[in-house]
Amino acid sequence: MSVDDASGYGLRATIRLATEKDPGEISAVYAPVVRDTIISFEIEPPTEGEMRRRIINTLERFPWLVYERDGRISGYAYAATHRSRFAYQWCADVSAYVHENERRRGVGRALYTSLNSLLVLQGYYNAYAGIALPNPASVGLHESLGFRLIGIYRRTGYKLDECCEDLTPTDP
User: Fold this and answer.
1) What integer best gives the mean pLDDT of the chain?
2) Strand partners for 13
3) Distance CA 156, CA 158 (A)
4) Which residue in 128, 143, 139, 135 sits closest to 159, CA to CA?
5) 162-170 and 131-133 as β-strands: parallel, antiparallel, unpaired?
6) Which of 48, 63, 98, 147 pairs with 116 at a CA distance of 20 to 30 A?
7) Packing angle of the helix pair 48-59, 23-36 (nearest 10 deg)
8) What would you measure as the largest C-alpha separation in the chain, in angstroms?
9) 38-71 burial, b if ≥16 CB within 10 A, otherwise e?
10) CATH 4.10.320.10 applies to domain 2-128
């Protein structure tokens, strides 16, 4: 899918399914989030091999999308199993990460819009996104896309000498 880039520079971008060739660039987007923030509850950035495994496993059932501009991955979004019990089979967890130099340029919105459209086509009814707090940019993005707060897990994670809370919004 080709999209108009929201940067204001008239560039063209592509949103496509991730492939086995993408783990290096995807890891480059995700690693600073893991290393330097509380946004991800992972402590060590996954290796390129681990990221490849995650992509392959995800694509067996769910979409994993990348936003590509000028041949470079600017961000990615994917869906995953919400919970393992059978009755949750038509619910999905969603996540999106945008390269630190590409934020506030419409990448996250474009990825989530495409991801949610694919999930609807696959028959999913609900999408849930966990947001480690504080993270006003992510909260704002999710709210602007129609997600609404359904709960906060208080004092959930401990990373970088901080206690994190986990806000869980769902789609409308």
Assistant:
1) 89
2) 3, 69
3) 7
4) 135
5) antiparallel
6) 48
7) 110
8) 46
9) bbbeeeebbeeeebbebbeebeeebbbbbbbbee
10) no
The CA dihedral of 1, 45, 139, 97, to the nearest 10 degrees, is -10
Alpha-carbon distances, residue 161 vs 108, 152, 157, 164 (angstroms): 28, 20, 10, 10
- pLDDT tens digits along 137-161: 999 999 999 999 998 888 777 777 7
Residue 70 corresponds to which amino acid? Answer: D
What residue spans define the domains of the chain?
2-128
Count the residues in the chain.
172
Tokens matching residue 82 = 């919400």
One DSSP character per residue, 2-35 reads EEE-TTSS--EEEEEE--TT-HHHHHHHHHHHHH
